[in-house]
Write a structure and sequence with these properties.
This protein has 200 residues and is α+β, with helices and mostly antiparallel strands. The protein is built from four helices and seven strands, in the order E-H-H-E-E-E-E-E-E-H-H. A hairpin with a 3-residue loop joins strand 4 and strand 5. It is globular and about 45 Å long. Keywords: Membrane, Transmembrane, Transmembrane helix.
Length: 200
């Protein structure tokens, strides 16, 4: 089973690569990520809360980052378990290339799945998967491309007048390489999307 997708982002490839590996940005784009911890060199474990129709589950995943070629591509290999809801094993390749003054992002996720979600109707599953994908890429593009021209939104201000910082001290997964942390989130989401879209 596999899931392919692509999108164009109005930002340079180096900026998109950096954003894909920035835990602060990804944390704002992916709903349901509960935790992520390092378990070795380029290996990590994470927890993602997800809901598809009547099935709600907490997926625990283990991921390894391989075939790094910054800022062009990487491959992630991993597996996730959601208890009685099911499991997913697979890989995801993310490839970036220059396109029309911006960046073309393409991904290919392959997975083997099973469990309770396999019993849901294909329409329900397809709708949920499309929703996850649209939400992620809409938020990610907005983060990378920045606010529209003329949008002079001000950053939030703390009560002492300072602007809040988003650094490793204030983010889940602190102490883990941003490349590893961000890649783990991408794989967890892509694995879930592949699982959902390829059922039925």
């Amino acid at each position: 089973m596999e899931l392919k997708g692509e999108t164009r982002i109005a930002a340079p490839r180096a900026a998109v690569w950096a954003a894909l590996n920035d835990p602060a940005i990804l944390a704002r784009c992916i709903d349901g990520v509960e935790s992520l911890t390092a378990s070795g060199d380029n290996r990590f474990s994470g927890v993602l809360n997800a809901r598809v129709g009547p099935v709600r589950a907490k997926f625990s995943g283990d991921v390894e980052l391989t075939e790094l070629d910054p800022p062009n591509r990487y491959v992630l290999v991993g597996e996730g378990k959601g208890g009685v809801a099911g499991f997913a094993k697979g890989s995801a390749e993310v490839v970036l290339s220059d396109a029309d003054g911006g960046t073309h992002l393409a991904y290919l996720a392959k997975s083997t799945v099973g469990g309770k979600l396999a019993q849901l109707g294909s329409r329900l599953i397809e709708g949920a998967a499309k929703g996850y994908a649209e939400s992620f890429f809409e938020k990610f593009k907005a983060e990378v491309e920045g606010p529209p021209p003329g949008d002079f939104a001000h950053p939030p201000v703390e009560t002492d007048g300072s602007t809040p910082r988003h650094d490793a001290e204030t983010l889940p997964g602190r102490g883990i390489s941003p490349l590893v942390w961000g890649s783990a989130l991408v794989l967890l989401v892509l694995a879930l999307l592949a699982w959902l879209l390829t059922r039925g």
